[in-house]
Amino acid sequence: MLALTEVPEGSRVAVVDLLVRGWGIRRRLMEMGLAPGSIVEVVNNTHGPVVVRVRGVVVAIGRGVASKILVRLLEVGGNA
Question: What letter does residue 45 receive in the DSSP assignment?
């Protein structure tokens, strides 16, 4: 498993767990579609927030929160 901040751009991942404290932020992430089992595409992961596409919507997540989202790699950079 990797943190969302470690995933290269263009990759597709499955959310495995949310290691955030507090029900409010956990609920907000799940409302945005970042629940365990969700498939997410990393659009931008350079400086600043991690930008992902989930359920067809592009969402920016701060690096602190993104580092607490555990994912499993499905496709690296759109290849295989």
Answer: -
SS3 23: helix
d(CA 22, CA 20): 7
Beta-bridge partners for 75: 12
Class of residue 52 by CB neighbours under 10 A (exposed 0-12, middle 13-18, buried 19+): buried
* Cα separation, 19 vs 60, whole angstroms: 18
Q: Is 62 helix (H, G, I), strand (E, B) or coil?
A: coil
Q: Which residues contact 58 (CB under 8 A, 6 or more apart)?
A: 43, 51, 52
Can you list the residues of the chain whose pLDDT is less than 70?
78-80
Q: Which pTM was predicted?
A: 0.90
